[in-house]
Amino acid sequence: MPHTVRPDRKAHEPRNPDWEATVRTSFARQKVMNLIGAEMGALAPGHCEIRLPFRDDLTQQNGYFHAGITGTIVDSAGGYAGLTLMPAGADVLTVEFKLNLLAPADGDFLVAEGQVLKSGRNLVITRGEVYAIRAGHATHCATMQQTLMTMHGKG
What we know:
- With about 160 residues, the protein is of the alpha+beta class.
- It has a single domain, classed as Hotdog Thioesterase (Thiol Ester Dehydrase, Chain A, Roll).
- Helices cover about 20% and strands about 40% of the residues.
- It is elongated.
């Protein structure tokens, strides 16, 4: 008989009853997001979306969004996805991430989506995807795996 795989729903239950306000307040304090013009999109326990409109000063020499900008927004999307599941009074810090660039980030805007894979007491593992949107068409341009550290008592 085949085994049925079921996601661990308990792993995606927020430990902070005020998780949404915590995440949105932290995002507002993050000056680099303001500097580049990024905005928070969809937010749910274990999930965060960050959107970035195209600006010429965010590009590399060929006119695509710079890889560093792409990495910046997906790092934050994964980090805030993780923060949605952390306890009250905690904050988040990226320990490491691996970014694969799959296609040029050529679009009218970028959408970075962060999703929690595993939420532990101290470490949280996320994945992130970045899409370049042009004329309603999405191109998957980057994928990330990330490890976060829960900073207890720092929120």
